[in-house]
Amino acid sequence: MNLDTAFSALADPTRRAILARLALGEATVMELAAPFEMTQPAVSRHLKVLEGAGLISRRIEGAKRPCRLSPAGMAEIDQWLAMLRKALEANYGRLDGVLAAMTSNEKKGTP
Amino acid sequence: MNLDTAFSALADPTRRAILARLALGEATVMELAAPFEMTQPAVSRHLKVLEGAGLISRRIEGAKRPCRLSPAGMAEIDQWLAMLRKALEANYGRLDGVLAAMTSNEKKGTP
DNA sequence: CAAATATATAACAATGTAGTTATATAACTG
DNA sequence: CAGTTATATAACTACATTGTTATATATTTG
């Protein structure tokens, strides 16, 4: 539903690192925070952003909130990127033709 | 080379719209700016961001700078996302397995 | 129950981003 | 050459983001 949120969630290296960690399996907030030189509240907020983007989900387990990857955000992203990917593939399918045209079409100098 | 740049380039709706337009084919700055209620300098800067992210490239054609999609940025993004996708598929591969087991258990009756 | 643990939230400072207007530069046009 | 067109850049404003510290809340534990 919200590509802005999803892509901007991925734009932060800390959040990508968190996702990479979660790719190995579920982890609690403290476990996720450990590798970073960053306070726990900062990590908590990154998790909130990731959750808002549908990239992770959390469950409640006593005082802990284990996080795991969630497919929703990725689905959205993949869907949008598919369109671009298709366009690029189409362009590069035509690349042979384009290059041939450019070569035979040479113009006079760039300034 | 820079995932931060690539993902945050995609995080803006104007930039995604520009990419969607470019998926239909090359366009000049003015052509790209036309559909938006936004000044030309603003669009110029969005294009700079997209170029910096390796998502578009520009050539010089007289006073015009036609833009087109470039595969570099996408490649980077795809590569990173592949890792997440794989993790998600692994998780959901397991889920499918569980569901399949449940379904076939209804038929075969077991655990 | 009191202390410790796990996490969330609020308030704030520093920095980044996206838009604006004004202006510069290069190329086309009459 | 003078004017218009196409694009870029600079200076500035408004708002968002990321991190910090301090503090709140719920849960586990001795």
Can you characterise this structure?
The structure is a homodimer. Chain A is mainly alpha-helical. Chain A has a single domain (about 5-105), classed as Arc Repressor Mutant, subunit A. The first copy, chain A, is built from 6 helices and 2 strands; from the N terminus they run ααααββαα. In chain A, strands 1-2 form a two-stranded antiparallel sheet. In chain A, helix 1 packs antiparallel against helix 4. Chain A is elongated and about 50 Å long. Residues about 105-110 of chain A have low confidence and may be disordered. Chain A binds a DNA duplex (30 and 30 nucleotides) through helix 4.
Write the layout of secondary structure elements.
Two copies of one chain form a homodimer.
Chain A: H1 3-10, H2 13-23, H3 29-33, H4 40-52, E1 56-58, E2 67-69, H5 71-93, H6 95-104
Antiparallel strand pairs in A: 1-2
Helix pairs in contact in A: 1-4
Chain A binds a DNA duplex (30 and 30 nucleotides) through residues 8, 12, 14, 28-30, 38-42, 44-46, 48-49, 62-65, 111.
